[in-house]
Model the fold of this input.
Amino acid sequence: MQNATPGNCGRVVGNSYLTDPVGENPANFRFAGFSITTELYAGAVDHDELLCRADAWIAYWLAPKGSQEREATAWATDLYDLEYHDPETLWQLILTIHSKDQSPRIQEVLSAGPIENLLANYGDAFIERVEVRARKDPKFAKLLGGVWQGGMTNAMWQRLQRVWDRRGWDGIPE
Done:
Protein backbone atom coordinates (compact mmCIF):
# COMPACT_ATOMS: atom_id res chain seq x y z
CA MET A 1 0.00 0.00 0.00
CA GLN A 2 1.18 3.50 -0.77
CA ASN A 3 1.90 6.10 1.86
CA ALA A 4 -1.06 8.28 2.71
CA THR A 5 -1.22 11.65 1.02
CA PRO A 6 -4.04 14.16 0.95
CA GLY A 7 -4.95 12.74 -2.44
CA ASN A 8 -5.26 9.11 -1.46
CA CYS A 9 -5.31 8.80 2.36
CA GLY A 10 -3.44 5.53 2.11
CA ARG A 11 -5.77 4.08 -0.54
CA VAL A 12 -4.65 2.63 -3.81
CA VAL A 13 -5.61 5.08 -6.50
CA GLY A 14 -6.34 4.50 -10.14
CA ASN A 15 -8.72 1.97 -11.65
CA SER A 16 -9.17 -0.09 -8.51
CA TYR A 17 -12.93 0.05 -8.12
CA LEU A 18 -14.55 -3.12 -6.89
CA THR A 19 -18.30 -3.56 -7.12
CA ASP A 20 -20.71 -5.25 -4.80
CA PRO A 21 -21.53 -8.52 -6.54
CA VAL A 22 -25.21 -8.16 -5.64
CA GLY A 23 -26.72 -6.11 -8.44
CA GLU A 24 -23.76 -3.72 -8.79
CA ASN A 25 -25.63 -1.00 -6.91
CA PRO A 26 -23.58 2.23 -7.14
CA ALA A 27 -24.28 2.82 -3.44
CA ASN A 28 -22.31 -0.35 -2.70
CA PHE A 29 -19.22 0.51 -4.71
CA ARG A 30 -15.98 -0.07 -2.92
CA PHE A 31 -12.77 1.77 -3.52
CA ALA A 32 -9.60 -0.15 -2.87
CA GLY A 33 -11.40 -2.49 -0.55
CA PHE A 34 -13.27 -0.14 1.77
CA SER A 35 -16.90 0.77 1.52
CA ILE A 36 -17.38 4.45 0.95
CA THR A 37 -20.91 4.36 2.33
CA THR A 38 -20.09 2.52 5.53
CA GLU A 39 -16.68 3.82 6.45
CA LEU A 40 -16.75 7.46 5.39
CA TYR A 41 -20.32 8.32 6.16
CA ALA A 42 -21.77 6.03 8.79
CA GLY A 43 -20.00 7.50 11.79
CA ALA A 44 -17.17 5.00 11.52
CA VAL A 45 -14.57 7.58 10.57
CA ASP A 46 -11.55 7.22 12.79
CA HIS A 47 -9.30 10.09 13.81
CA ASP A 48 -6.70 9.39 11.10
CA GLU A 49 -9.35 9.28 8.38
CA LEU A 50 -10.84 12.54 9.66
CA LEU A 51 -7.41 14.21 9.57
CA CYS A 52 -6.74 12.83 6.11
CA ARG A 53 -10.09 13.99 4.79
CA ALA A 54 -9.53 17.45 6.28
CA ASP A 55 -6.10 17.65 4.64
CA ALA A 56 -7.53 16.56 1.29
CA TRP A 57 -10.46 19.00 1.57
CA ILE A 58 -8.06 21.86 2.28
CA ALA A 59 -5.68 20.78 -0.50
CA TYR A 60 -8.54 20.72 -2.99
CA TRP A 61 -9.68 24.26 -2.21
CA LEU A 62 -6.13 25.65 -2.25
CA ALA A 63 -5.03 23.85 -5.43
CA PRO A 64 -5.23 25.62 -8.79
CA LYS A 65 -8.27 24.72 -10.88
CA GLY A 66 -7.47 21.94 -13.32
CA SER A 67 -4.41 20.78 -11.39
CA GLN A 68 -3.63 17.15 -10.67
CA GLU A 69 -3.75 17.88 -6.94
CA ARG A 70 -7.24 19.27 -7.23
CA GLU A 71 -8.39 16.25 -9.22
CA ALA A 72 -6.78 13.84 -6.75
CA THR A 73 -8.46 15.46 -3.74
CA ALA A 74 -11.90 16.12 -5.22
CA TRP A 75 -13.33 13.11 -3.36
CA ALA A 76 -12.93 14.96 -0.06
CA THR A 77 -15.31 17.73 -1.09
CA ASP A 78 -18.29 15.40 -1.52
CA LEU A 79 -19.94 16.01 1.84
CA TYR A 80 -23.51 15.16 0.84
CA ASP A 81 -23.80 12.04 3.00
CA LEU A 82 -22.23 13.79 5.97
CA GLU A 83 -24.51 16.79 5.54
CA TYR A 84 -27.65 14.67 5.39
CA HIS A 85 -26.83 11.47 7.30
CA ASP A 86 -23.90 12.02 9.66
CA PRO A 87 -23.92 15.57 11.05
CA GLU A 88 -21.71 14.60 14.01
CA THR A 89 -18.87 13.60 11.70
CA LEU A 90 -19.49 16.75 9.66
CA TRP A 91 -19.12 18.84 12.84
CA GLN A 92 -15.87 17.07 13.68
CA LEU A 93 -14.62 17.64 10.13
CA ILE A 94 -15.49 21.36 10.35
CA LEU A 95 -13.56 21.69 13.60
CA THR A 96 -10.62 19.75 12.19
CA ILE A 97 -10.44 21.86 9.03
CA HIS A 98 -10.73 25.05 11.09
CA SER A 99 -7.91 23.94 13.39
CA LYS A 100 -5.64 23.15 10.44
CA ASP A 101 -6.17 26.16 8.17
CA GLN A 102 -7.64 29.58 8.83
CA SER A 103 -6.66 31.18 5.55
CA PRO A 104 -9.26 33.44 3.91
CA ARG A 105 -9.92 30.96 1.09
CA ILE A 106 -10.63 28.08 3.48
CA GLN A 107 -12.74 30.30 5.74
CA GLU A 108 -14.86 31.36 2.76
CA VAL A 109 -15.59 27.82 1.61
CA LEU A 110 -15.99 26.32 5.09
CA SER A 111 -18.41 29.01 6.27
CA ALA A 112 -20.54 29.19 3.12
CA GLY A 113 -20.63 25.42 2.69
CA PRO A 114 -20.34 22.87 5.49
CA ILE A 115 -21.18 25.21 8.40
CA GLU A 116 -24.10 26.79 6.58
CA ASN A 117 -25.46 23.36 5.63
CA LEU A 118 -24.96 21.93 9.12
CA LEU A 119 -26.97 24.75 10.67
CA ALA A 120 -29.66 24.66 7.98
CA ASN A 121 -30.19 20.92 8.38
CA TYR A 122 -29.37 20.28 12.05
CA GLY A 123 -29.25 23.70 13.66
CA ASP A 124 -31.27 22.75 16.72
CA ALA A 125 -28.82 19.96 17.54
CA PHE A 126 -25.66 22.03 16.95
CA ILE A 127 -26.34 25.71 17.65
CA GLU A 128 -25.33 25.49 21.31
CA ARG A 129 -22.00 23.93 20.37
CA VAL A 130 -21.49 26.61 17.73
CA GLU A 131 -22.27 29.36 20.25
CA VAL A 132 -19.94 27.92 22.89
CA ARG A 133 -17.13 27.49 20.36
CA ALA A 134 -17.57 31.04 19.03
CA ARG A 135 -17.44 32.52 22.54
CA LYS A 136 -14.25 30.59 23.37
CA ASP A 137 -12.53 30.93 19.99
CA PRO A 138 -12.51 34.39 18.35
CA LYS A 139 -11.22 32.87 15.09
CA PHE A 140 -14.21 30.53 15.01
CA ALA A 141 -16.51 33.51 15.63
CA LYS A 142 -14.86 35.22 12.66
CA LEU A 143 -15.35 32.08 10.55
CA LEU A 144 -19.08 32.29 11.31
CA GLY A 145 -19.13 35.79 9.84
CA GLY A 146 -19.07 34.23 6.37
CA VAL A 147 -22.20 32.14 6.90
CA TRP A 148 -25.38 33.19 5.10
CA GLN A 149 -28.86 32.39 6.34
CA GLY A 150 -29.71 30.03 3.49
CA GLY A 151 -32.13 27.41 4.83
CA MET A 152 -31.75 28.38 8.48
CA THR A 153 -34.79 29.41 10.47
CA ASN A 154 -34.97 33.04 11.54
CA ALA A 155 -34.47 32.00 15.18
CA MET A 156 -31.32 30.03 14.25
CA TRP A 157 -30.04 32.93 12.17
CA GLN A 158 -30.51 35.37 15.05
CA ARG A 159 -28.62 33.09 17.43
CA LEU A 160 -25.75 32.81 14.95
CA GLN A 161 -25.63 36.57 14.46
CA ARG A 162 -25.26 37.09 18.22
CA VAL A 163 -21.95 35.17 18.28
CA TRP A 164 -20.37 35.85 14.92
CA ASP A 165 -17.66 38.37 14.09
CA ARG A 166 -18.28 39.95 10.69
CA ARG A 167 -15.06 41.99 10.65
CA GLY A 168 -13.16 41.24 7.47
CA TRP A 169 -16.21 39.98 5.58
CA ASP A 170 -17.90 41.80 2.72
CA GLY A 171 -15.72 44.89 3.05
CA ILE A 172 -16.31 45.33 6.78
CA PRO A 173 -13.05 46.67 8.26
CA GLU A 174 -11.01 44.42 10.56
Notes: The helical segments are 36-40, 47-62, 68-73, 80-85, 87-100, 104-136, 138-144, 154-163. Residues 104-136 form the longest helix (33 residues). Confidence is low (pLDDT under 50) at residues 11-42. Residues 45-163 form one domain.
